[in-house]
Amino acid sequence: MFQVVGGSEHTLRAKLTLSQESHGNIMREAGPVSMTFAIPMYNASRLQVRYLQIEKKTKTHNPYRWVRYVTQANSYVARI
Fold this sequence. Notes:
Organism: Nelumbo nucifera (Sacred lotus)
Strand content: 5-15%
Pfam families: Adap_comp_sub
Distance between the termini: 23 Å
Number of helices: 0
Protein name: MHD domain-containing protein
């Protein structure tokens, strides 16, 4: 998997080869291009968990006291 350093910018260049010869009056359209990504410890919505209340306390289960934020691609589409 390709990792991107924070604060950096990358460019994707692609070459499309059409299987059939197109006519000049046909509008050329490519897309959509879909991307899949995950950004650990980043929260795009800035929603924060301040506290949790555990209603059923058991002796066998000890909850962890940390929150992991992950931003994942869901329906991100870039049209060319």
